[in-house]
Fold this sequence. Notes:
This protein has nine helices and five strands, in the order αβαβααβααβααβα. The protein has helices spanning 6-10, 33-46, 61-71, 79-102, 115-125, 130-136, 156-166, 178-194, 208-230; strands at residues 21-26, 50-55, 107-112, 148-153, 199-203. A five-stranded parallel β-sheet has the order 2-3-1-4-5, with helices on both faces. The protein is α/β, with parallel strands linked by helices. 35% of the residues are buried. Residues 29, 55-57, 71, 86, 112-113, 117-118, 121-122, 171, 173 line the site of thymidine-5'-diphosphate.
Amino acid sequence: MEHIPQELLQSFRPPAFQHSYFLSFEGIEGSGKTTQIRRTKEFLEDHNFRVLILREPGGTTFGEHLRQAVLSNQTQLHPLAEAYLFAASRAQLLHEVVMKELSVPNTVVICDRYLDSTLVYQGKARNLGHRLVLEIHQHFPLNLVPHMTFFLEVSLTTSKDRQNVRNNPKDYFEGQGDAFYRKLIEGYHEVRDLFPERIRTLDGELVPDEVFAKIQEHLTVLLKTNDAKDK
Length: 231
Ligand code: TYD
């Protein structure tokens, strides 16, 4: 894997708000993100948190325009154009929504995809490299990363089976060949090694209840650790 300088990795940190948390969910199509995000929201609301779910790209008026522009695009964009568009949408989302919401105590912001998607889709699958993607994000507010990221890991076969069941019209990144998906899977493994403290891997092949039980364990530790820090 390419060398990434430690100083670059260290420029990424979670937002420093007390009693508020930033979470993200990652995985290839069909990994079960939607179900687990919904369950996480319910769990946290039961623990008296105010929970917001955001999707990337999107989440702001400008971001939704960009989402539409990229995902409905018929021609292949240059990978750098993709990376900057996703980063632009993210900067606006952080500025307009994430920072403001997290400044309210007892809030959890959950992002359906975040920086790791850009590292994996543009950095790995589109060959830009992780270093370049990290460099694009190294300045505030793009250097803010979640307190915890849940990576739902599924095999290529499972991803394809689940996509076939849904049978939705394919968008810009869907319906790519196996080689593309293999790169995504490999990319997620690399990114997890870059951020071992932040990213938790879950076996997305398990039934949803079992996957959620693991998420719940991780969340309980996260909430307890932070409570202890405040004392
Ligand atoms: P979406 O329909 O939200 O996909 P999914 O349901 O799989 O989350 O579409 C988002 C697509 O954009 C998805 O294929 C991943 C891709 N993407 C990137 O390539 N880079 C990024 O930085 C982000 C956030 C998403």
